[in-house]
Amino acid sequence: MAEKFENAKPTRMELLKIRKRKMLAKNGHELLSEKKDALINEFFKVLDQRKELKYELDELISTGYRTLQEAHMLMGGREVKSISEGAPKMEDLDVVRDSVMGVRVPSFDVEIPDQKFYGYADTSVKLDESVENFRKVLKAALKLAVVEGKLDKLADEIEKAKRRVNALEYIYIPKLDATITYIERQIEEREREDFFRRKKIKAIMERREKDEAS
């Protein structure tokens, strides 16, 4: 059985306060439970997105390496490597914040260079295909990283919501119930004592009136 709150005064005023706190706690529990369920639903939606993105990324990587190998065979590994060293570097990632179900999650704001950085004269169309395929790989990888970040944040928020719901359900509200029961019993006991005291006083006064009358 849950313990009552310490220093709970057994008065009707205190009883009203505790009952109000219980009502607020139950409303809070209901809202938190709804939020937790909504977060869990969103988590599984994002989980499905991750599954799709991972499949897409695997396909893009496979295609990219196939076209790169073909470019190697047609142009030679040294030539492909020499050309790759002239590729423009991607600017630093700017991390921005997005909101999912009221949860702040990380996102990326980045521009991937798409300009040509080599000539056409001595290159193969397979190199063009490989470059374009790996641009797609990079874009898909960034999307997947954003989704992974969303999953991490949602998992944290779900865990927090679970702890709060459990604390209300198994600790705080039972403690309020125990306090309400304690105060109600104390008030009932005090009212019984007052009733018997008044009854006793009344009996004494009635005896005195009889004695005086006789």
Please count the helical segments.
3
Cα gyration radius (Å): 37 Å
Kindly state the number of beta strands: 2
- Which class do the helix and strand fractions yield? mainly alpha
Principal-axis shape equals: rod-shaped
**What is the level 1 CATH name of one domain?**
Mainly Alpha
Helical residue percent band: over 70%
Q: What are the secondary-structure elements, in order, as H or E?
A: HHEEH
Provide an overview of this structure:
With 214 residues, the chain is mostly helical. The chain has a domain at 22-161: Helix Hairpins (Orthogonal Bundle). The protein is 75% helix and 7% strand. The protein has 3 helices and 2 strands. It has a two-stranded antiparallel sheet. Helix 1 crosses helix 2 and helix 1 (12-75) runs antiparallel to helix 3. The model has no long low-confidence stretch (mean pLDDT 84).
What is the element layout, followed by pairings?
Blueprint: H1 12-75, H2 77-84, E1 94-100, E2 103-109, H3 125-213
Antiparallel strand pairs: 1-2
What is the gist of this entry?
Helices cover 75% and strands 7% of the residues. It has 214 residues and is mostly helical.
Please give a handful of descriptors for the protein shown.
rod-shaped; 214 residues; 7% strand; 3 helices; Helix Hairpins; two-stranded antiparallel sheet; mainly alpha
